[in-house]
Write a structure and sequence with these properties.
Blueprint lengths: L6 E5 L5 H5 L12 H9 L3 E7 L2 E11 L2 E9 L8 H14 L5 E7 L3 H9 L3 E10 L12 E9 L1
Parallel strand pairs: 4-5
Antiparallel strand pairs: 1-2, 2-3, 3-4, 5-7, 6-7
The chain binds coenzyme A (COA).
Length: 157
């Protein structure tokens, strides 16, 4: 990204959800509908968004449970991938959580999702377990009736 590009991480508000839910549509494996995002947000989940020159380009949905946090989804818009935004977003989340009582971050990722696994590896997440046949569809979507394992990853803060 060029030197005069401004990248920011900020908390998303309810009014941001339509734009965030439209960043990834039609990908059953990783996209969340506006309804699902709104419901999660209303139930206490939080969202950090990453902005490039003021425009939302990705988000991370997470929830705090006691002194642990679970990442429920992270998405960067396709046209902005491999530009460091996923890393910036996770760093923003980690910095925020380090200022709280959170001691550990958990997440699940599809076994076939190598891009996300690489990102999590770089960010210091370690495999803590595996949930066999956890996801209903393979990463290619509803046409694939195979189930897929989830890797459970965690990172101590
Ligand atoms: C996973 C995702 C969030 C990564 O976001 P991103 O902004 O592209 O990631 P970054 O640019 O910060 O990448 C950081 C590092 O992760 C690794 N990485 C990211 N995407 C990769 C890919 N497609 N293939 C291989 N490595 C990849 C690289 O090591 C990369 O560093 P590098 O570009 O210097 O080599 C993005 O691909 C995405 O939105 N995918 C669809 C949704 C999804 O799968 N979410 C995860 C749910 S668990």
């Amino acid at each position: 990204m060029s030197g005069n590009t401004a990248v920011d991480v900020a908390e998303a508000l309810f009014q941001d959800l339509p734009a965030l839910s439209s960043l990834e549509t039609g990908v059953i494996a990783t996209s969340w509908s506006l309804d699902a995002l709104s419901q999660s947000y209303s139930n206490g989940c939080q969202i950090l968004k990453v902005l490039v020159n003021g425009e939302s380009c990705g988000y991370c949905l997470f929830r705090n449970v006691g002194d642990e946090t679970e990442i429920l989804n992270i998405v960067i818009v396709k046209s902005r991938r491999r530009q460091g935004l996923g890393r910036t977003l996770l760093l923003g989340l980690i910095e925020k959580l380090q200022c709280s009582s959170c001691k550990k971050i958990w997440l699940e990722v599809r076994k076939s999702n190598m891009a996300a696994q690489k990102l999590y590896d770089i960010m210091g997440f370690k495999q803590a377990g595996i949930r066999k046949n956890y996801y209903r569809f393979g990463i290619t979507g509803a046409g694939n009736s195979n189930r897929e394992d989830a890797l459970v990853l965690s990172k101590d803060l």
